Amino acid sequence: MYHQHMDETHAVSALAALAHLQRLRVFRALVVAGIEGLTPSVLADQLGVARNALSFHLKELAHASLVSVEQQGRNLIYRADFARMSGLLGYLTEHCCQGGVCDVCPPCGCAR
């Protein structure tokens, strides 16, 4: 899987954006939606969030490059940036178990 390069500054930006309950919920909903993405109205209905608040949270996630937005006709489609997400996870687990193979932390992908 392709991992987008992540440095400390980008990691802090991404983690700060996700360090809010509503933004984390929005991001997870977009991850579940996959490459199809979701419109803000569908997201708002799914999560029970006011649309103006959702707009603010989507902008914060986009500013951290965790989501992308595409205009499709009259609709905006938001998608999780899976390369960025993988890059963040890779950054967090880059030196797991001192870079060796381990069976302690499966999220890093180095499990046997």
From TrEMBL:
<dbReference type="InterPro" id="IPR036388">
    <property type="entry name" value="WH-like_DNA-bd_sf"/>
</dbReference>
<dbReference type="InterPro" id="IPR036390">
    <property type="entry name" value="WH_DNA-bd_sf"/>
</dbReference>
<dbReference type="InterPro" id="IPR001845">
    <property type="entry name" value="HTH_ArsR_DNA-bd_dom"/>
</dbReference>
<keyword id="KW-0805">Transcription regulation</keyword>
<feature type="domain" description="HTH arsR-type">
    <location>
        <begin position="3"/>
        <end position="100"/>
    </location>
</feature>
<keyword id="KW-0238">DNA-binding</keyword>
<dbReference type="Pfam" id="PF12840">
    <property type="entry name" value="HTH_20"/>
</dbReference>
<dbReference type="InterPro" id="IPR051011">
    <property type="entry name" value="Metal_resp_trans_reg"/>
</dbReference>
<keyword id="KW-0804">Transcription</keyword>
<dbReference type="InterPro" id="IPR011991">
    <property type="entry name" value="ArsR-like_HTH"/>
</dbReference>
<protein>
    <submittedName>
        <fullName>Helix-turn-helix domain-containing protein</fullName>
    </submittedName>
</protein>
